Model the fold of this input.
Amino acid sequence: MFQSFFLAFGVLATALVGIWGVSSFAPTAPDFNLQASVSSPAVEQPLPVWNPTKLAWRQATSSVPGSPRDAHTTAVFNGKLYLMGGLDGDRAVNGYGVEYWNAPHFSDIWATADGENWELVTQDAPWGKRRSSSVEIFQNEMWLFAGLRGDNFNYDRTIWHTADGANWATSTLTTWYGREGQASAVFNGKLWFAGGVNFTDRKTLNDVWFSEDGINWQEATAQAPWAKRYDHTLTVFKDKLWLIGGLDFGEKYMNDVWVSTDGVNWELAVAKAPWPARHGHGAVVYEDKLWIVGGWGENGGLNDVWFSEDGINWQKTENDGPWVGREDHSVTVFNNKIWLMGGMGSGFRWQGDVWFSEN
Done:
């Protein structure tokens, strides 16, 4: 039976070949030795390891909103980056320095969702025209305190806070000494600040204060073991407070690093860091590393960038920032990037550019 079937099929195939010239109809014996083709599973390639020494920068805009400025504040709040206050000394430069009493100070608030497109929240915040204030996000609100009022040149000791960035409430006067150039942080569920300067009284400070509610303040220590200073930084890194650099009267630039687990007791982590002594720099935690960016040293504005994995051992990025060396700029982590804004560059030139890091 099967022989008759294959014979009939062969005759039909031969006929079709003769008609159409199609040889594919010719019968072939099945090949039982064929094996199924099985593709090998794709080998997962390891993700590239980011090298922090190759941190690069890109300019977002050449002009911060409102006006070039330094001694302003920035904070990330409710998914937006806020820029507040500061001063523009370009119009107050004379032959020997800056007449700060003639420099316009600002009370404006700006916000952005992307760092490039800014919206004016208010031109005149109720806390007045001021510079060198501290701003921290604490208990779901934005808090502003300390600094110098540019409209009356008094050191303001009132506390301001807002839940939306636009409407501000204030508390009574605090008991701490009026100042600017202090450094602040949120640590262990408390609001902290340390050091600062009162130029009216020619007094620098090394006290440390904290608050559990933002309104009532307690002095943690009247004299910390680190030298009196201003324009330093205070950063929370690896569950500790880190105080870095600063300046005292007499052009005493500092490059020491201090650390504390409680804000009261401090230890010297680095007596002389490898980076040039400076003040007016920025410090942030980014990619689980502690970074310092720019500042002002003995030779003027700095545009170098350094990082540390432990706060003690420091390494410089391969390339300095493409931006002009400067002091009293702001450095903030926003949308997984480091953002740098404003500042005063060498030659007493106020800057209005905005930059962000690229990995």
